[in-house]
């Protein structure tokens, strides 16, 4: 068994991985660029048997697609990340270096660690969220940020998307139901359920706590 590397063929930043070609070849890493969801699913089925570690070269969106294409089977292979996306918020939380060569070395030699996932039920097949699950204003910003904006603005694309969306921020009626059985109805501009520390290319999802503050919210 060997290491496989998945890269997003539609991401311009993924071309940076080509500079690591000699290192990848010496390490015997198999490079794959799935063009369609069906091709990605096929690769992941094969990886369960023939791959000892699956490297993902891309950003948060690429990680999201790969994790959900695994269809809840997370037993193997272990995943590793080479952050080549626009936001790279998951890499920030995990402390993965942004330099591709350093990230590749860590991906190949680092010890796997367990990572929590958020399961999102929408009435159909469950979705899995790795970094944050967000709605409201955050959803508007994500829709406003397309591939062209990302390529032109880089990490500032999310700031540009926020500027385009801030003029019209409606309130959203949401109901939060807790495992204790209680529920809470709120009117919010934004709602983020976080697994990671940041969203939108490094923006903290909550204000930094003041000295001596242990937590911001006590959940029922």
UniProtKB/TrEMBL annotation:
Domain DAGKc, first and last residues per copy: 1-124
Keyword Calcium included in the entry's annotation: no
Catalytic activity, EC: 2.7.1.-
Keywords: Kinase, Transferase
Broadest EC class assigned to this enzyme: transferase
Region feature Disordered, mapped onto this chain: 200-220
Record bears the keyword Kinase: yes
Pfam families per UniProt: DAGK_cat (PF00781)
Record's protein name: Diacylglycerol kinase family protein
Species of provenance: Thiohalorhabdus methylotrophus
């Amino acid at each position: 068994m060997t290491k496989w590397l998945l890269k997003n063929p539609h991401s311009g930043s993924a071309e940076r991985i080509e500079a690591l070609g000699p290192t990848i070849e010496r390490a015997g890493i198999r490079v794959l660029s799935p063009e369609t969801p069906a091709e990605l699913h096929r690769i992941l089925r094969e990886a369960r048997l023939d791959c000892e570690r699956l490297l993902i070269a891309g950003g948060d969106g690429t990680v999201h697609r790969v994790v959900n294409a695994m269809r809840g089977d997370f037993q193997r292979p272990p995943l590793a990340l080479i952050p080549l996306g626009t936001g790279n918020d998951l890499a920030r939380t995990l402390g993965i270096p942004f330099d591709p060569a350093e990230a590749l070395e860590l991906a190949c030699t680092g010890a796997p660690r367990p990572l929590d996932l958020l399961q999102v039920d929408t009435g159909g097949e469950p979705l899995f969220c790795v970094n944050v699950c967000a709605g409201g204003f955050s959803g508007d910003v994500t829709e406003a940020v397309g591939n062209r904006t990302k390529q032109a603005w880089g990490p500032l694309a999310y700031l540009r998307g926020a500027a385009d969306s801030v003029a019209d921020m409606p309130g959203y009626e949401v109901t939060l139901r807790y495992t204790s059985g209680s529920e809470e109805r709120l009117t919010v501009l934004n709602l983020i359920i976080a697994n990671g520390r940041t969203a939108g290319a490094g923006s903290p999802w909550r204000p930094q706590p003041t000295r001596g503050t242990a937590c911001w919210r006590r959940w029922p």
